[in-house]
Each structure stands twice: as structure tokens, then as C-alpha cells.
Task: structure prediction
Amino acid sequence: MTDLSPAAQAVLDAYRSSHLSLNNLAAALRVTADQLIDVNWSVEMWELHHDIHAIAAELEGGND
Result:
């Protein structure tokens, strides 16, 4: 895996202490981000939504 951003590294470190697969972790992050934006839409929440999706993509090795 390439060098990760500090945010993605923190998520990966938490994952390593759990029993989730990395794909399940990324999917859980995406669902969480989507729920945030559905409940409380604002520019700040939209940016957070985007950042969480970026962390999920980074953990999967993608470029979303």
C-alpha cells in the first residue's frame, strides 16, 4: 500500500485492531458519509462527506 494521508492512516490503524475486511471498512465509511449528508446538509457537511469518501477510496487503493 502506498503512503496514506494522516486521516486514512488513522482509519487503517483502527481497522487493524478490528475484525473487518478493508472493503467492509470502506463501505461502512461511505454509508456513514452518506448518512451525514442526508441528515444535516451544509457546505461543511458536503466537504466532510467528500473527505470521508476520499479516505474510503484511498483505503481501497482507488482514486475517487
About this structure: The mean pLDDT is 82. Helices lie at 6-16, 22-39, 43-60. Residues 6-13+20-60 form one domain.
